[in-house]
Specification:
Structural class: mainly beta
Strand content: over 45%
Distance between the termini: 131 Å
Helix content: under 10%
Largest sheet: 5 strands, antiparallel
């Protein structure tokens, strides 16, 4: 028999053998990889993304009510933090079926101030997601006096800073404005008596008042010394010049403390009562000075081209709040008592003015032009939390007290 060898058959068989070997090797390798993957997945299961949580509502009153919503697989608990303090926690009773999960808390802040709230949601592996910060401003439980034309001519009203409850305080038998409260609970204000602006005083609980300056008719902007024994105020002469006068708290022993052709006013005592800060305006210049009452030493605190005015000395004596338009429009600023380190505290597009420190030095009452009226009828009352440590914007907070179309102005803290 004749046997013929075909080279193509041999090569084909060789190729098929190699292909089968490759397929078998690949299959074996794939099986090994699959087994390895399944083994790894069994002992090291893939992690789910962390839960998500967000605030859905925050209501501020005596009690802060917070609502949040979590999203994610098997969220086991949610927490509410105020700064670095855990203030509330809720455990999810059914993590497998709660996606999304809504949670609500009620929390009583320990004191007035600013609290940066954050919420956290945890899963079964203790992984967590956090919300954005939400700043809550808790107002103090105090009262302000202020002047308003809400019932016609300007009269004096009181407002509770935490509830905003408002009522008439001095019946509007005449125009009454610019209240200030002494440490011994005497209230001074200016009253238009027979077309003459007089300085008057009364107690907190008796509306009958006493005229202290029958010899004058242009009294404006009174302020008490810290011990309540002296009072400084402005008078304007026939030439239009305004200067400061100092007297006893009963109006006696009046003596001028400034003598300028322009405007010297808006006085504020330092805590010892030995020095006043005030506004000196001449021509287009308006700056803040301090004046030692005994020696007469005058010190200029602001020296820029801006209009600086309305100084308010803090109760601890370390800071002076003031109004300046150096950022483009009048805002509340604060500086050291030598004029150093000025810091802008407000950023209200329509402007802010009239800062007044609370007795504890943590709050400023002020006025901003945000109402729905025209001109001065846009002025509304605000509070600003600005304690000594609040050097960063997130450490401060603003609360609006009034909202209307009338002139709410000239706030003064009541001492009860």
């Amino acid at each position: 028999m004749l046997i013929v060898h075909c080279p193509f058959s041999i090569e084909l068989m060789s190729f098929l053998s190699k292909l089968i070997a490759i397929v078998l090797a690949a299959t074996l390798s794939g099986g090994i990889v699959l087994v390895a993957y399944l083994t790894f997945a069994t002992f090291f299961p893939p992690t789910s993304p962390p839960p998500r949580i967000e605030f859905t509502s925050v209501e501020v009153g005596d009690i802060v009510t917070v609502s949040v919503t979590t999203r994610g697989e098997r969220v086991t608990r949610a927490e509410l933090w105020a700064g670095d303090q855990l203030v509330a926690r809720e455990v999810n009773p059914n993590p497998a079926l709660s996606n999304p999960w809504a949670v609500a808390w009620q929390w009583q802040p320990p004191h007035a101030g600013v609290y940066p709230l954050a919420a956290r949601a945890y899963d079964a592996n203790n992984g967590y997601g956090a919300s954005s910060l939400f700043g809550v401003v808790i107002p103090p439980q105090q009262k302000l006096l202020f002047s308003s034309n809400r019932d016609g001519g300007h009269a004096l009203y009181e407002i509770q800073t935490d509830t905003r409850a408002t009522g008439i305080w001095q019946p509007p038998l005449s125009q009454n404005r610019q209240p200030v409260v002494s440490s011994n609970k005497t209230v001074a204000f200016v009253s238009n008596q027979n077309n003459a602006w007089q300085l008057v005083t009364r107690t907190l609980d008796n509306p009958a008042f006493t005229i202290l300056t029958p010899n004058l008719n242009t009294v404006q902007r009174p302020t008490f010394s810290p011990d309540g024994k002296k009072i400084a105020f402005e008078i304007t002469n026939a030439n239009g010049s305004t200067n400061l006068v100092l007297s006893d708290a009963d109006g006696k022993n009046q003596r001028p403390v400034t003598d300028n052709d322009g405007y010297s006013g808006q006085a504020s005592f330092n805590p010892t009562g030995e020095t006043i800060a005030y506004t000196l305006r001449q021509g287009n210049l308006s700056d803040i000075y301090t004046l030692a009452l005994d020696s007469g030493q005058l010190t200029r605190l602001t020296k820029d081209a801006a209009q600086d005015a309305q100084p308010a000395w803090s109760p601890d004596g370390a800071r002076i709040a003031f109004v300046s338009n150096r950022s483009g429009i009048a805002q509340i600023w604060v500086m050291h008592t030598d004029g150093a380190s000025p810091l802008q505290l407000t950023n209200i597009p329509s402007g802010a003015e009239q800062p007044k420190w609370s007795p504890d030095g943590n709050w400023l009452a002020f006025v901003a032009y945000t109402g729905s009226g025209e001109g001065n009828n846009r002025r509304e009352l605000y509070l600003l939390y600005a304690p000594p440590h609040a050097v960063k914007e997130e450490q401060r907070g603003v609360i609006r007290l009034t909202q209307n179309d009338v002139d709410d102005t000239e706030p003064a803290w009541m001492i009860e």
